[in-house]
Design a protein that fits this description.
mainly alpha
């Protein structure tokens, strides 16, 4: 990919935006986990439900930007990478489905330690996806690890 990408004016600024958004998702995830484990100030089911909806909206917006921006750019520059972008998009849908299931379970049951553990498992899956995606995008944008 050339440094005069039509979307970014260069790969480095685009990658920085991409990683900045991932940091926002990380902060939101950690904030939810902290709230779930705070025994001094337990989070109410209603507040948690509201925050899960906001978190899902943030994730969906971020995934859409990746799919319609970053992944399209990678496919345009490296058509052989298109199947891998489709796999990343599938992973996005699976993560959103996993979060939706957590939200539904919360609506129909009380907030339990088991639910908190399931959220932690979701957070681990999201983190694993993020790491895989960052490596994929670095390859697609032809950025060395030290440049990223």
């Amino acid at each position: 990919m050339s440094s005069d990408s039509y979307l970014t004016g260069g790969n480095q600024p685009f990658y920085l935006h991409f990683t900045f958004e991932h940091e926002g998702l990380d902060c939101a995830t950690h904030d939810l986990q902290r709230s779930l484990r705070d025994s001094q100030k337990p989070i109410s089911k209603a507040e948690l439900s509201k925050r899960l909806t906001q978190f899902r909206d943030l994730m969906a917006k971020h995934f859409h930007e990746e799919e319609e921006g970053c992944f399209d750019e990678i496919c345009a520059q490296h058509p052989h990478m298109c199947p891998a972008t489709r796999q990343m998009e599938l992973s996005h849908r699976l993560l959103l489905t996993q979060l939706d299931k957590l939200s539904r379970d919360l609506e129909s049951h009380s907030l339990t330690d088991e639910w908190k553990d399931q959220f932690d498992a979701f957070a681990a899956d999201l983190n694993k996806h993020k790491k895989e995606e960052l490596a994929f995008v670095r390859r697609g944008l032809q950025l060395a690890e030290e440049d990223a």
